[in-house]
Amino acid sequence: MLFSIVSGLNESKSNKKDVIKKFTSSCQFLKSLNYDGLELSLLEPEKIDAKKLTEISESYEMKIPALGTGSTFIRFGYSLGNTQESLRKKAIERIEKYIEFARETQAKVIIGLIRGRYKHDSNPQKERLNIISSLKKCCSLAENSDVQLIFEPINRFEIDSYNTISESVELIEEIGSNNLKLLVDSFHTYLEEDPIYIWEYLKEIAHYVGHIHLADTTRRSPGSGHFDFKKFLNIFKNMGYTEFVSVETIMKPSFEIIAKNSIEYLRTIL
């Protein structure tokens, strides 16, 4: 397994020089802790020099495993399930920007919060159909660029669709694209899945998984709560998973402390 942690670059408010400086500093710091990569949460990837970031990451023997897209919905309100066709189109256009960046950096593109929330006066069934239709278009774009999308089940308190792993696996099977895989997040797994049966089910669906997010029951660094990370990660390890597991938590008291505590804990249990 390879280890990474999520960070933003503040590319929408910073100049290109500052973005490069922050990325370089992060790679240098994470390499000193023996991380293998830095996952990026971005709002406007087109404002970043992808080739330059690739050069920097390679110089530190680091990778950019995945790109977070959730801020597109949070900041712009664009979503794949929106009842307004214009906003669905904008969400797909934004995904295309992430795919272009991912093609240059050999990263995967996360489909999570960008699918949106249901509106109180809309038809949930229709919005779900919108998500499916939009996701098919995104998969077509990903296939043309040889980029992998990873679909994330998110708990019901944050989003209204595809909260469980089983629902998400069914969607992936329905879409039927080789460029669409599953992202399993320990925090959402803890909130949504049956604590008795989930362990065997993870073995059954491990071949769908293309990326893993880690946060404890506190949504802070692994080891700060009571989630069984050893059991969780060893399921995938024993099933031959060799992709990234990425720490995605509340970054308090600081990114540096979370990064240090997380990698020390994870290295001891695997």
What's the overall geometry?
globular
Low-confidence stretches: none
Strand order of the largest sheet: 1-2-3-4-5-6-7-8
The N- and C-terminal alpha carbons lie at a distance of: 9 Å
The CATH superfamily is Divalent-metal-dependent TIM barrel enzymes
Name the CATH architecture. Answer: Alpha-Beta Barrel
CATH fold group: TIM Barrel
Estimated radius of gyration: 18 Å
How many domain modules?
A: 1
Helical amount: 40-55%
Q: Kindly report the average pLDDT value.
A: 97
Number of separate strands:
8
Give helix and strand order, one letter per element, not per position: EHEHEHHEHEHEHHEHEH
CATH first level: Alpha Beta
Computed structural class: alpha/beta
The profile of the biggest β sheet is: 8 strands, parallel, barrel
Structure description:
The structure is a single chain. 43% of the residues are buried. The protein has helices spanning 16-32, 50-59, 71-76, 85-105, 124-145, 165-175, 186-192, 198-205, 229-238, 255-269; strands spanning 2-8, 37-41, 66-68, 108-111, 149-151, 180-185, 209-214, 244-247. The protein starts with a strand and ends with a helix. It has a single domain (2-269), classed as Alpha-Beta Barrel (TIM Barrel), CATH 3.20.20.150. With 270 residues, it is α/β, with parallel strands linked by helices. The model has no long low-confidence stretch (mean pLDDT 97). The longest helix is centred in the middle third of the chain and has 22 residues, at 124-145. The protein contains ten helices and eight strands. It has an eight-stranded parallel β-barrel with strand order 1-2-3-4-5-6-7-8, surrounded by six helices. Helices cover 47% and strands 14% of the residues.
